[in-house]
Specification:
mainly alpha, 85% helix
Length: 66
């Protein structure tokens, strides 16, 4: 049961990372967002994309051991 809770939690974190990546990428495509320029938005999108990749790897590992 603990393993299922962990996978569910990781999937929630991955969804947040996916939405954050989309938000920053959209800001970069629009030439910036609020006080942030496009370069900052691209960096933010990259940070969230890397985090998403890490979370997806953790989910795959957890599902393999289940």
């Amino acid at each position: 049961m603990q393993q299922i809770a962990t996978i569910t939690h990781l999937k929630g974190l991955a969804e947040h990372a996916r939405m954050s990546h989309a938000h920053w990428l959209r800001g970069a495509r629009q030439g910036g967002s609020g006080n942030y320029g496009p370069a900052y938005c691209i960096e933010g999108a990259g940070t969230w994309r890397r985090r998403l990749g890490e979370l997806l790897a953790q989910i795959r590992d957890a599902e393999r051991t289940r």
